[in-house]
Specification:
2 helices, 4% helix, mainly beta, OB fold (Dihydrolipoamide Acetyltransferase, E2P)
Length: 278
């Protein structure tokens, strides 16, 4: 992937950049793996807004991505590398020998025509192949890691993400996450070898508010700009501090820096080292 910049013909173009999509090999998705994506605009079943700042956006279709890759020991050939409007990573269309087609997250270096294998026993240590952590050598960079075996990839699925397999401790494997957190997962958890593709996504600059609206994200307003009836930070003449010991949410609960993780969470015992600064 590369980033494309335009001449500054307008204010919105001046600082904007777009995804050139030069690594995409097909513009048309596989029809059998596409479904309609209904807009919810942040509303629940009653039509009430439960998540603010959502709405609008361009029409999109959902690509059904296979996060489990549970067709074991059946080689698959990469047919296309495609753009997915629902995620920042690329997806690859696999064609298995039995005729079935599935989408997977495409790693860096995956090429059309490459053979990919998912196995619980043995598979070559090559980019895109999927194996249990216990079958991988120490120090391997992986993505799409399962937290619970059989439930599909949960860790490292976004563009540029990867996890380092550090060590084996009994029935668990120790991983170093992108945040710096050291975490234990079952050694039988499946993981794909490599790093998620589309590395330059983080460098894209939208340049104007309209592109944010295309993504289905509506404007947000700071609490200080509201009236006292609408937010604890609101009110006052001119530009004033919030007037509170600690910032609060719109509903009066403490915000910014407050720990939200449950202290009695069962998964706490699986965290060896917290992420940086925590």
């Amino acid at each position: 992937m590369s980033i494309k910049k335009y001449k500054p013909t307008t204010a919105g173009r001046r600082f904007a950049s777009v995804d050139a999509c030069d690594d995409v090999t097909s513009r048309k998705p596989e029809k059998s793996l596409v479904s309609a994506l209904k807009k919810k605009s942040g509303r629940n079943a009653q039509g009430k807004i439960t998540v603010r700042h959502q709405g609008g956006g361009v029409k999109k279709f959902y690509r059904e991505v296979d996060f489990k890759q549970d067709k074991y020991d059946i080689p698959a050939v990469v047919k296309t590398i495609e753009y997915d409007p629902n995620r920042n990573s690329r997806i690859a269309l696999l064609a298995y020998r039995d005729g079935e087609k599935r989408y997977i997250i495409a790693p860096v270096g995956m090429k059309v025509g490459q053979t990919v294998l998912s196995s619980k026993k043995n598979a070559p240590i090559e980019i895109g192949n999927r194996l249990p952590l216990e079958k991988l050598p120490m120090g391997t960079m992986v993505y799409g890691v399962e937290l619970i075996p059989g439930r599909g990839a949960k860790i490292a699925r976004s563009a540029g993400a990867m996890v380092q397999f550090m060590a084996m401790e009994g029935n668990t494997a120790q991983l170093k996450l992108p945040s710096g957190e050291m975490r234990l997962v079952p050694k039988t958890s499946m993981a794909s070898i490599g790093q998620v593709g589309n590395l330059d996504y983080m460098h894209i600059r939208l340049g104007k508010a309209g592109r944010k609206r295309h993504m289905g994200i509506r404007p947000s307003v700071t609490g200080k700009a509201m009236n006292p009836v609408d937010h604890p930070h609101g009110g006052g003449e001119g530009h004033n501090p919030i007037g509170l010991r600690a910032p609060k949410t719109k509903w009066g609960k403490k915000a910014m820096g407050v720990k939200t993780r449950l202290p009695k969470s069962k998964s706490n015992q699986m965290i060896v080292k917290r992420r940086r600064g925590k």
